[in-house]
Amino acid sequence: MDFAERSQVMWAGIVAFLPSLFGAILILLIGLVIAKLLEKGTDALLERLHFDEALDRGGVNRTLARAGTKLDPSSLVARLVFWTVALVAILMASNALGLTAVSAMFYTLISYIPRVIVALALFMALDQLQVAPDIVRTAFTLLLGAAALAAGLAFGLGCRDLAGEHMRRWVEQGQRKAEEVRQARLEAEQRPGGPYRPGVPQPVSGMAASRLDGDSTIALPPSPVSRPPL
Question: Which of 48, 106, 121, 176 is 20–30 Å from 115 (CA)?
Fold first, then answer.
């Protein structure tokens, strides 16, 4: 396979992948816009309901401040809503691209969101009860770091084989299209009256072909002799 055929195979694979890529980008953009709107709407709604003041009476704001976060409870809930919708959008975009391993990973992450909420509530309760606050905060920080590391490793290792599979599929599609183009070109060259190529004799048909076949000669009538005027 020469350079031209390799380029043709690669280009055919890219063209075959573009519709799925554009669809996934569109789904992701729409999902992020919806997630941002829901985040702002949730934050505004919780502020109208005086959500922060209600939790401040229970000491939640002080707990969040000791945990090192600069977000108030309403902003924290709004950010959680944003990332939930964003993960759903990423899941749908992965399905549009056919990335089953990535879709399974994000589905697992989405299913863990209720558990994360329960863990946050338990963490706040233990901190309010002053049950070994330093140990609880350290354990919670280590737990979040381990979850982030596991998600990164799962994404990297899961996409390695998946990327190879998709690349092999694109190359096969490009090879099939290149073979179809080559066969069509050969058929066009072998067909009588095919495309003209300089230096290649072209088939002759009609009266010219009948004059060229055989060694027979065609007798032409004698030309009239001009006579002088009387």
Answer: 48
Asked, for residue 228, whether it belongs to a domain, the answer is no
Q: Given phi > 0 = left and psi -120 to 50 = alpha, else beta, which region is 132?
A: left
Residue 193, in any domain of the structure = no
Q: What is the CA radius of gyration of the chain?
A: 38
The parts of the chain modelled with pLDDT lower than 50 are 196, 198, 200, 204-220, 225, 230
Residue 135 lies inside a defined structural domain of this protein: yes
Distance CA(181)–CA(173), nearest Å, equals 12
* Torsion of Cα atoms, 5 then 7 then 12 then 18, to 10°: 170
**pLDDT attached to residue 30:** 92
pTM of the model: 0.46
Report how far residue 221's alpha carbon sits from residue 106's, in angstroms, rounded to the nearest whole number. 93
